[in-house]
Amino acid sequence: MSEPWRRLPALSLKQIQYFVTLAQLRHFTDTASRLAISQPALSSALRQVETVLGGKLVNRTASAVTLTELGTAILPHAQRLLNVAHATFDDMQRVMLAGGDGTLRIGLVPSVSNLLFPAVPRLLAQHFPRLRVEFHDQTNDSLLLQLENGQIDFGIGALDSSVPDRLEIYPLQEDPFVAVMRRDDPLADPHHLPWRQLANRDIAVFSKGNSSRLVSALAESHRLNLTARYQVDFLETLYGLVRSQLAVAILPQLYTTHLNDEELTVIQLQQPLLSRTVALMRSAKQNHSPLIENCFQLLLHDFQLRGK
């Protein structure tokens, strides 16, 4: 944690907010209107940010606003600063108005929910009864972005090549890929199914997250003829395609934890084995309060005990 008396740059949070909003809207008039300020005030604030940071952040023409190379590099840091500031002010207001110890924001991909509920809320309530806990479910890509931007304190997601090195990673368990198919499917007899037997079958995968990327990479590296005919957003759509005999679904096993359907069965995929690593993650750059740090260490210890 940095020293509180260390001199800060001559910039306000509002000036940073003006730059971030302009970078998102890419229009001076729209930005000034959204922020309820005049265009001269917006221009003055932007010049102050550029002066303090030592370079031009935007290029302005009659029809559009674009970010310079420096502006593009600065933007994620400015967004993270605003997100942390908003969360901190919300916590301070909540403490002042309603008491308590603030808010813990945990992100997760939906498939890992059974790792958290009901054990994690009970554990946190036992040790930190005055703490407000929020759970934010999203795709793995969104989870990583929100961790970097400081919108959540830590999260549980899956590792792949898209995970930035600016995150601290604590692997929890391996989650193998499986096939979900009808019980009357000719391939549903064995407990384990080689990937090559899915050649010439229509396959359904998730359109978002890293599952489809991992399956595609496996098919390419092992020269497997897999046809991902259907790419969907929701689990029930995936199962519906299987029930309708339109496809075989491929997905990580954790998604099937609560599958209770007499028509469907889960088959382990092998030759080769493919799995994703589920991990607890947080930003390596964000300074957490002692309370949030204690929560993180408590949950990490609990997950490690459960994994033994």
Automatic annotation (TrEMBL):
It comes from Serratia fonticola. GO terms for cellular component: cytosol. InterPro entries: HTH-type_LysR_regulators (IPR050950), LysR_HTH_N (IPR000847), LysR_subst-bd (IPR005119), WH-like_DNA-bd_sf (IPR036388), WH_DNA-bd_sf (IPR036390). The keyword Hydrolase does not apply. This is LysR family transcriptional regulator. The gene is oxyR_1. GO terms for molecular function: DNA binding; DNA-binding transcription factor activity. CDD domains: PBP2_LTTR_substrate. Belongs to the LysR transcriptional regulatory family. Keywords: DNA-binding, Transcription, Transcription regulation. The lineage of its organism: Bacteria, Pseudomonadati, Pseudomonadota, Gammaproteobacteria, Enterobacterales. PANTHER family: HTH-TYPE TRANSCRIPTIONAL REGULATOR YBHD (PTHR30419), NITROGEN ASSIMILATION TRANSCRIPTIONAL ACTIVATOR-RELATED (PTHR30419:SF8). Residues 11-68 form the HTH lysR-type domain. It holds the Pfam family LysR_substrate.
